[in-house]
Design brief:
The structure holds 2 protein chains of 2 kinds. Chain A is of the alpha/beta class. Chain A has helices at 2-16, 31-39, 54-60, 64-71, 105-118, 137-148, 168-171, 177-182, 196-214, 240-247, 251-261, 267-290, and strands spanning 46-50, 95-99, 125-130, 153-159, 162-163, 166-167, 188-192, 217-222. Chain B has 13 helices and 14 strands. Chain B has helices at residues 5-19, 43-47, 59-71, 83-86, 90-97, 100-103, 133-136, 150-162, 212-224, 242-252, 267-279, 301-307, 311-324; strands at residues 2-4, 23-27, 52-54, 75-82, 113-118, 143-145, 167-172, 179-181, 195-198, 203-207, 229-233, 236-238, 255-262, 288-292.
């Protein structure tokens, strides 16, 4: 969680310095969700994410170097600088991308899981999406298909209460999102998305069920983003006091307190974590800075494949 | 042997299912119903519900699922009933299938084939009759095929499945009952080249898919009055085989494009522009276009006929062109 938080704080800084351009959606405040959920996955599993996916990519083993270089638009980036912040991809990590169309990753996850099922592989496909996606028709189409075909999908709804600037209650007739998923005949339950242990336990339980072939599971992680939707957002749609209230539930601070109280963590250990993270990020920035831009001659490369896959 | 266009496609699908365990067919009514155009009739019994997979009416989800399955090692054939319904899956086709290879820096191929019907001529009214393949031909990242012959209906599918990129195959609804002779051992065909279906010296008639038959008929009529028309079947709308088009125009110095899409912003506009760019000084006359009337395709037969390119219109257009500059 500290790693994701510091990485993104650095991104925000670099964005202000115009090193990173385009849209930048920060995950700050929501780290417990990805950390908890990903903990239940193995390297063989698949992950589909949204445009707020720096944390998911880092946790999946995509290197901080290649993510940072991607933000810089360098060809050393995980998508060769063609995707940017919203489209991190890494085939080796089975990371099927940041998808910047709300709900657009859900059908992909269904298909990835279908391929595993048809080939009798035991993989789980974890699909992350926000509460905004629940309003899309694709969400409902995919819940139906996942449950109908008993596909091995872990559906991770990151309910941060806002679809960009539209509050859940202004956009949804039923704000209990797990009830919607349950209507499709799959196990679905809400999780305290600010508590990493709760997230991990829920994901563990859900993943076990999915892996056993019972079909999909839906987890509604109730969380909050402390920062704006993207770097352009003045946040006129929500009260500053609301943000401050949620910040009291900061998943890092609360977990740190808990571990300190239990005697598992002390200042020295915490400092070591911070130092390691700082060093990794510093290297990532240096790597990105030293990276190179793809020659313009390569512009149309990868619009189509140059050669056939195996 | 004598078969229909429908049977040619069924044979191609069956052949693909036998050849490669990664291939499966997915779409609305493809299984128990036998395919709404009876293309997949009998395949469920032969291959089972895992490989002949009925889907709910959820175009976006099952097309997207095809993309995901292709990314994860399968070779899906997704059937969409008509091009009109494909608009419900436009997000998945345009934002995912067409972009992911490039956006991922070349990491994820999408070896997916999407088949759908297109076109008018069966009195199905506006929401089942449009020809939107030209829209898809606008989009880099996908390939767009329009088989107009039995050989192409039989042979394009396997080539498309072997292609690492997403391929859309448009089957004109009026062609399914077309019957003809085809070699029993018909083979996969190249999908990157246009074909000259009839050689001629006086005018190039450039077309594809459902209007090829009408164009060939028009060419026969024209021959009776001494005008030798060359007929170019585009076969592939993206990438366009500009070379074959220009070579033909350089032989005939006159060109007419016959396209069942609407004229404004159409594939015929693109072809016309390419001829202007590549063979302007070879032209004896301006390029002409015969397209559908700019109206939602109507139900009533006389109106539908009037809305569509017809052989008589082609003959009249070419006759007028030849008369002015014999």
């Amino acid at each position: 969680m500290v790693r994701i938080r510091r990485f993104e704080e650095k991104c925000a800084e670099l964005y202000s310095a115009s090193k990173i351009r385009g849209f930048l959606h920060l995950y700050i405040g929501e780290e417990a969700v990805a950390v908890g959920a990903m903990h239940a996955l193995t390297p063989e599993d698949n992950v589909v994410a949204t445009y707020r996916e720096h944390g998911h990519a880092l946790l999946r083993g995509v290197s901080a170097n290649s993510i940072m270089a991607e933000m810089y638009g360098k060809q050393e980036g995980c998508s060769r600088g063609r995707g940017g912040s919203m489209h991190l991809f890494d085939a080796a990590a089975r990371f099927y991308g940041g998808n910047a169309i709300v709900g657009g990753g859900l059908p992909l996850a269904i298909g990835i899981a279908l391929a595993d099922k048809l080939q009798h592989r035991q993989r789980v496909t974890a699909c992350f999406f926000g509460d905004g996606a629940v309003a899309e028709g694709e969400f409902h189409e995919c819940m139906n298909l996942a449950a109908l075909w008993k596909l091995p999908v872990l559906l991770c709804c990151e309910n941060n209460l806002y679809a960009m600037g539209t509050a859940l209650k202004r956009a949804q007739s039923q704000t209990d999102l797990s009830l919607k998923a349950a209507a499709y005949g799959m196990p679905a339950w809400p999780v305290d998305g600010m508590d990493v242990v709760a997230c991990q336990e829920a994901a563990q339980r859900a993943t076990l069920a999915v892996r056993s072939g019972e079909g999909p599971c839906f987890l509604e992680f109730r969380t909050y983003r402390f920062r704006a939707h993207s770097m352009y957002d003045p946040q006129l749609y929500r009260d500053k006091r609301e943000v401050e209230e949620w910040k009291k539930l900061d998943p890092i601070a609360t977990f740190e307190n808990r571990l300190t109280t239990q005697g598992v963590l002390d200042d020295a250990k915490m400092k070591r974590i911070e130092d390691e993270v700082a060093s990794e990020i510093e290297k990532a920035v240096a790597f990105a800075e030293a990276g190179t831009f793809e020659p313009i001659e390569e512009l149309t490369r990868f619009a189509y494949s140059a050669e056939k896959p195996e | 042997m004598k078969i229909t266009y429908r049977e040619a496609i069924r044979q191609a699908i069956r052949d693909a299912l036998i050849r490669d365990q990664r291939v499966f067919l997915m779409g609305e009514d493809v299984g128990a119903y036998g395919g709404c155009f009876a293309v997949s009739k009998g395949l469920l019994e032969e291959f089972g519900p895992d490989r002949i997979r009925d889907t709910p009416l959820s175009e976006s989800a099952f097309v997207g699922a095809g993309i995901g399955a292709a990314m994860n090692g399968m070779r899906p054939i997704v059937e969409i009933m008509t091009v009109n319904f494909s608009l419900l899956a436009l997000d998945q086709i345009v934002n995912n299938a067409a972009t992911i290879l490039h956006m991922s820096g070349g990491q994820f191929n999408i070896p997916l084939v999407i088949r759908m019907t297109t076109g008018a001529g069966r009195q199905l009214a506006a929401q089942h009759s449009h020809s939107l393949e030209g829209w898809y031909a606008h989009i880099p990242g996908i390939k767009v095929l329009a088989p107009a012959t039995l050989e192409d209906a039989r042979g394009m599918l396997w080539t498309a499945l072997e292609d690492p990129d997403p391929v859309l195959i448009f089957e004109h609804g009026t062609l399914y009952n077309m019957q003809g002779e085809i070699a029993a051992d018909a083979v996969p065909v190249e999908i990157s080249k246009a074909a000259v279906r009839r050689a001629g010296t006086d005018v190039s008639l450039i077309t594809y898919g459902g209007t090829l038959g009408k164009t060939m008929l028009a060419a026969e009529h024209l021959a009776a009055s001494g005008v030798e028309a060359e007929v170019v079947d585009l076969r592939t709308l993206r990438p366009l085989d500009t070379t074959t088009i220009l070579d033909s125009v350089m032989r005939t110095h006159r060109a007419v494009i016959i396209d069942e899409g609407w004229r404004s912003g159409s594939i015929s506009a693109e072809i016309s522009a390419r001829i202007m760019e590549g063979a302007f000084y070879e032209l004896d006359l301006p390029v002409e276009r015969i397209c559908s009337a700019e109206v939602p395709i109507p139900y009533a037969k006389q109106l539908e006929d009037a809305a569509l390119p017809q052989a008589a219109t082609i003959v009249a257009t070419v006759t007028r062109m030849m008369g002015g500059h014999g």
